[in-house]
Each structure stands twice: as structure tokens, then as C-alpha cells.
Amino acid sequence: MSTKKGTDIRPANGKLGVLLPGMGAVATTFIAGVEAIRRGHAKPIGSLTQMGTIRLGKRTENRSPKVTDFVPLAGLDDLVFGGWDIFEENAFESAKHAGVLTRDDLDREKGFLESVKPMRGVFEQSYVKKLSGTYIKTGTSKMDYAEQLCADIAEFKRAHGLDRVVAVWCGSTEVYREPSEVHSTLAKFEAGLAKSDENIAPSAIYAYACLKSGVPYANGAPNLSVDFPAIHELAKQRQIPICGKDFKTGQTLMKTILAPGFKARYLGVEGWYSTNILGNRDGEVLDDPESFKSKEVSKLGVLEHILQPDLYPDLYKDMCHVVRINYYPPRGDNKEGWDNIDIFGWLGYKMQIKIDFLCRDSILAAPIVLDLALFMDLAQRCGMHGIQEWLSFYFKSPMTAPGLYPEHDLFIQLMKLKNTLRHLRGEELITHLGTEYYD
After folding, report:
1. Which CATH number applies to 251-358?
2. Architecture of 16-247+363-424 per CATH?
3. How far is the C-alpha of 301 from the C-alpha of 288, rounded, in Å?
4. By C-alpha distance, which of 213, 240, 209 is closest to 225?
5. E strand residue ranges, 203-244
6. Per residue of the chain (439 residues), what is the pLDDT tens digit?
């Protein structure tokens, strides 16, 4: 075991508030699930923080504590939920509308879910064209909206006697936008808020308000939100951790599992055709071409970064990668992802792989929300700030420091996450180099 001292980590004393911009299917599935786990009605399936272990030292030492015993994470009993939405439904009503969980599961946690009520959301029709918000803030400018959000955060913290707060975006995918001049510096961004610049999306207003309030922010959608220089500047100035973007759940999760395997065995990929059908509010939003563009960009980058066609042109240079999403209301939250993969091997002989993943999107996303909330709180207590690349494991389009390409390989991402935890506690990093043969 290393003699190096680990990072000083402030203890996870008191209550942790978890603020969720967007209290729809994902957020309510997360809240209901945590309450069910707290009451002994369920197990935290899918959560690395709750079920994961971490190997320490050599394999012969047989040290593999649970992650929760290794690093000081907030306990589930200390979590308090809040958030914003553009519809007034409480968490029980919203969850019932989403149709993810069975009525029996919802009724069992009904009293608690009814107590979780959203605050009025910030909404701009041009950014989410398929929805019409009915429970929204009014104000004189986008800066006014940001100040109202800051006031909401302060009141949430005061009302519940919270010691710390984190935020995880669970709202809709906004229309595709690239960073513009208003996103280039904090001064320009704040001036743009005051002038209600049309290039500033609602999600970016939430991110700004959270960082101004000292709240770590994780972005679960492909929106810009915290992925532009002005917000990076604010995160550095206020010493706040940020991460994103776009929860890695169904089809993209499968790609980041399979593609590293093809590359490891030097199998070529001629084409990868992916299509999805889904209903629910997410499917409705993505039925708009501009919102789909945000999701498409997030999904398309995965294979290129994993397979590295510039390094392996004979295997991947001419690969055809197509992504489609179709709104199909009968499917509800139970998204279905079809993949056709055309691969080739020795002497160029062709083969095919076909996948039909009937997944439950919010069921896969809920444990991600939990892990991000707990790990972002840990990062804040460790004094870590800015982009938390070690949390790339959870995202389709991981944010990186300027000039770095993102790591998409799920297994490298997991190694990076666990090595970060080892580093925080002063343990040797695991490299899997068999040094015992050279002692």
C-alpha cells in the first residue's frame, strides 16, 4: 500500500439537497427509487456507488471494499429532493403520467412522492418546440430568471436545513446550438443574460444560477448548459465541479461496450446502423428535428473516438454510421434500440451482428442520477473544481479540458473513475502490470 497521503476530504455531515431541473420520467423514477431503497422495498441495482466494490493493492491482498466504505459519500437517508419543472404536477402525479413504474410501486411511496413539488421552471418555447410549459417563471430578463433561480436555491436550502446542495439536469433535450460569442467569456455571458440574448438557452440559465449559488452541476442532456468557456470560467472562479453531458443509457451504452471489443480484436467495422423508437415526453421532444440534432451529435461521436479511424484506416476509415430516433407513443418510456453492425475479419470476410435492446430508459438513467449526485458532492468536499472528466463513465458525450479528445471506452472510463477514488485515498493506482515477475 502506498505511503502517499490521500486528499483531505471534508466529512459528509448533515443533509444533502439534490436539485433536479426537469422533474419528469427520469427524475421521478430516481426519487421513487431512492425512497423505496431507503424503506427497504428495493435494492439499488445499477448504482456503482451503492453496489460497487473497488480493488486495493495486489490481487493477493484480497482487499475489495465497497465504494461506500472506501470514500465518504452522503448516505441515502441524508438526501432531500427538490427541483423545477414547467408543469405543476408533484412527483407522484408526474411519475404516474410518465408510466415508468407500476401503480403498486408508486402507491407504496405515494405519500413521500406527493410531498416533492416542483418550483416554477424557466422555459423558452424556441428551445423545446414540442412542449408548452404551463408552470413557468415570468421576469424582465434572463438575468432576472437566473436571480429567481438563485433565490429558489437559497430558500430550498433554508427550508430543509441543508448543509450542501448538488444539481443534476434531468430535463428535456433542447434544440442544437453551438457556442457563440455570448458564451466566450463570463462578462459577455452575464451581459447577454441582462439583454436576454436569444443564444442563451434555459438550461444554461440553470447552470449559471447553480454555480453562482455554489452548487455543483451535472448535465444529463446533450444541451450546452455547462459546456462552454463562460461557464468554465465561472466554475473556476467559484471553485465548483461540473460535468456532463447526456446520460449514457441504452443504445450508446451498448456501443461503448461492444466497440472496444471490436477494436481490441482488430475486427473491421464497415457500417453501424442504429435506430430507436420511443414515446414519453423525451420521444415527443426529439420528434423536433432541431432537438434531434443535439442528440444525434451526442450519439455520433462515440464510435469515431473509440475506433480511431485515423490510426486504423484499414479497419474503420470508411465506416458508415447512421443514427435515427422515431417518436412512437405506444412504446412509452420503454425505448427499443435496433442496431445492425456490419463487421469484417480475416481476409476481409464479412459478418453481421444484430441487436434489439428493449430497454427502460429511465430505469437505466435513475442510478446514474444517484451516482452523479453523490460523486459531485464528494468532488466538492475534496476541493475538486471545473470539469470532472473522471465521471465520463456516465455520459454519451463526456466533457474534457480544452484540447483533449473525450474517452468513450466504457472500461477505460471505469478504470479512470476507480483510480481517481484510489488517488483520493492515497492508494496505489491499478495498472494491471504484472510487476510481481520483476521483483
Report:
1. 3.30.360.10
2. 3-Layer(aba) Sandwich (3.40)
3. 21
4. 209
5. 217-219, 241-244
6. 444 678 999 999 999 999 999 999 999 999 999 999 999 999 999 999 999 999 999 999 999 999 999 999 999 999 999 999 999 999 999 999 999 999 999 999 999 999 999 999 999 999 998 888 999 999 999 999 999 999 999 999 999 999 999 999 999 889 989 999 999 999 999 999 999 999 999 999 999 999 999 999 999 999 999 999 999 999 999 999 999 999 999 889 999 999 999 999 999 999 999 998 887 766 666 566 666 565 566 567 889 999 999 999 999 999 999 998 888 888 877 888 999 999 999 999 999 999 999 999 999 999 999 999 999 999 999 999 999 999 999 999 999 988 898 999 999 999 999 999 999 999 999 987 765 544 4
